[in-house]
Each structure stands twice: as structure tokens, then as C-alpha cells.
Design a protein that fits this description.
CATH topology: Arc Repressor Mutant, subunit A
CATH class: Mainly Alpha
CATH superfamily: Winged helix-like DNA-binding domain superfamily/Winged helix DNA-binding domain
Number of strands: 6
Length: about 100
């Protein structure tokens, strides 16, 4: 997959555009900037929304589920965005920038 940040586009392996909401694109961007690092839900929410959220808010889990449906080969068995029990999430892919 290729992310084109200046155009808010994500291209799949065949070059087709994957439609992402702004929130999904921002979440993917956070993961791409922090590959192979476990990010807590709190940290993700801070990076995405600043102080405009509640610690009991499950929005991040819903956004991750929607993003997984769009980028994972098998969303029910995710390999790119993995949950780390009791902590948060990790983006497992190698990231190259050009």
C-alpha cells in the first residue's frame, strides 16, 4: 500500500484508491509515523484529538476496527494493526518513506 499524504489517498497493491475518512487517514498516519511501537489508547487519542476526549471513550477502538476492514487482508485476523492486550495497538509493518 502507498499513502499519498498530500492527496489524502491510500493506494492498494493494484493501484486502486482505498477510500478513507479523514479520521481513518489521520489514524493511519499516526501508525505510519510510529511503526513497531506500542501506542496506548490514551496516546493515540492525544495524538488524534488533543484534549477533546474522555478516558472512557472507545472511539479509538471503533476507528481501528473500521481502518482494519479497509487495509487488512483478513480484518478478523489482523496482521498490520495488532492489539496489545491491556495496553493499546501496534503497527507491525515495515515503513519506507521516499
Amino acid at each position: 500500500m502507498v499513502a499519498r499524504f498530500d492527496q489524502f489517498e491510500l493506494l492498494d497493491r493494484t493501484g486502486e484508491v482505498v477510500n478513507l475518512t479523514i479520521g481513518e487517514f489521520r489514524l493511519l498516519n499516526v501508525f505510519l509515523q510510529n511503526p513497531k511501537h506500542v501506542l496506548s489508547r490514551d496516546h493515540l487519542m492525544d495524538l488524534l484529538n488533543g484534549t477533546d476526549w474522555s478516558p472512557l471513550d472507545r472511539t479509538i477502538d471503533n476507528q481501528i476496527a473500521r481502518l482494519r476492514r479497509k487495509i487488512e487482508r483478513k480484518p478478523n485476523a489482523p496482521m498490520l494493526i495488532r492489539a496489545v492486550r491491556g495496553i493499546g495497538y501496534i503497527f507491525t509493518a515495515d515503513v519506507e518513506t521516499s
